[in-house]
Design brief:
2 domains, elongated, single chain, about 325 residues, Rossmann fold, mainly alpha
Length: about 325
């Protein structure tokens, strides 16, 4: 046995809010019960109650007060916390008003995941290698690639620059449309050719075509080397737990979490603090979804169609 030191729970016995705010809270609770209301006097003018005509006027006043206090009383924007019981009714007016006052802010209103690239990635991933229809169709493969959540790495092990990646996708898409490449064409051993050349072709144009061919095949090899092993592995799963584990590990190994982190950092650097929380929220939601799936269906027999449809319907 190993001796482990167990710490006892420590509970806060001192409220973290202003004493006057607690008095106001008690007044509202007591008045709502229609009972006796204890006398209490607010001190230091620490609580003010204002009435406005509408939500827009309310937010405008708050933004103006914040701006004045930062400008004249040595406050920082991070010193302020604006709270409301129902944030949804303010979500469309906070941003324009705070932007007009040049106030940086974070809004924690939850957004639907349905329009996020991660959902598009999952839908495409579950559609590409169909067991009941044609596989590796143009629309499905391009839908997955254009989420920009699966980025190949270069010879140094670094993710491709996003502009370089987009250029390669454009070149690949043009060739696929021109030649009608679908299905096993993505998985064939032989490389695709951007342009066929004979012995008489030489010079700058030949070198350019050869470079384009290399770029296109980097995308094709990425699909060929990445997706078939995933499908093979997940189809060997015995139960829901194994399938969820395989999907999660695939998303991590292929760099989805890395891309979300990159998006988050780029948004922070651009000063878009509210939007910067979105990538982390989406990843946490995805992980929570898998946890819920395992809790409910982890011991059930794995059936590919049921697994995929359940995951996408829960998002």
């Amino acid at each position: 046995m190993h001796n482990k030191h167990v710490l006892t729970d420590i509970y806060a016995n001192r409220p973290r809010v202003n004493a006057d705010l607690l008095k106001l809270d008690n007044y509202w609770k007591e008045s709502a019960k229609m009972g006796q209301i204890r006398d209490a006097k607010l001190e230091n003018n620490s609580v003010e109650v204002w009435q406005t005509d509408n939500n827009y006027a309310e937010v405008s006043y708050i933004a103006n007060q914040i701006r004045q206090m930062v400008a004249t009383k040595n406050y920082k924007y991070s010193d302020f916390l604006v709270m409301t019981r129902h944030l949804d009714s303010y979500k469309n007016i906070i941003k324009p008003i705070f932007d007009m006052e040049d106030i940086p802010f974070f809004n924690d209103v939850q957004k639907n995941m349905a329009d996020h690239p991660l959902v598009e990635l999952l839908n495409a991933l579950f559609s590409i290698d169909s067991q009941h229809g044609k596989s590796y169709q143009y629309a499905d493969v391009m839908r997955l690639l254009k989420t920009e959540m699966l980025i190949p790495k270069d010879s140094n092990g670094d993710y491709l620059d996003i502009n370089d990646y987009r250029n390669r996708i454009d070149l690949t898409e043009n060739l696929v449309l021109r030649n009608g490449y679908e299905g096993n064409k993505w998985l064939q051993k032989e490389d695709w050719q951007y342009a066929w050349s004979d012995d008489a072709d030489f010079g700058v144009q030949f070198d350019k075509n050869d470079a384009i061919t290399t770029q296109i095949n980097s995308i094709r090899h990425f699909i060929k080397d990445t997706l078939p092993p995933f499908y093979k592995k997940i189809r060997a799963a015995k139960n829901g737990l194994q399938a969820a584990t395989i999907l999660y590990q695939f998303m991590v190994d292929i760099g989805v979490s890395d891309q979300l982190n990159t998006w988050r950092n780029n948004l922070i650097n651009a000063g878009k603090l509210e939007a910067s929380t979105r990538p982390e929220q989406v990843w946490n939601t995805f992980c929570s979804l898998l946890d819920d799936y395992v809790t409910v269906l982890g011991d059930t027999e794995f059936k590919e169609e049921d697994f995929f449809s359940t995951i996408t319907s829960w998002i």
